[in-house]
Here is the input.
Amino acid sequence: VSPLEYYDLVRFNAGDWEPVPGFTNQGNITSALVHDGKLYIAGHFREYQGAPGNCIAVFDGTSWDNLGGGMLMDLNNPDYLYPTIAEIGFHNGELIAVGSFNFAGDAPASNIAKWTGDRWCSYGGYFEQTISGMAIWRDTLYVTGGFLTIDGDHYGYVARWDGGNYTEASSTPVGLSERTAGSHV
Here is the structure.
């Protein structure tokens, strides 16, 4: 990589660093993970600025997918404010994203959502502030952040998900579901 160029996502290839094709945005990446042979990235970046997704994207080694449009603050004005994803992880086979956003795809979502393979679904509850982190401990999802309340009930910066498979709303499906290892047609 030339010292005069700036990239937020690079890879080591054949003894040298190079930019990852298709990611030309200079937004911050806050979380990255590899799952089922794909690279998932999340953070503070937008499609209209040259990123392959809005706050989240997946790379299969050749091309990017924007995961159903990613996260927005306002569906009617994609440039409104600047949503962000603080952290991503997999829980019960689904990608969980937490941060500061009002929509996941076209589904209302209060700072937490899950990607089911073909759509975003929101969890119940209104978090009045950002969710900045998450952890999975003994198969239970925990979230942390600046929130004091969820739906008006006091939680004080940390909460545990007890809702099982419940979803509040789901976005419009986007094509075929991603196949996972061991899935059959």
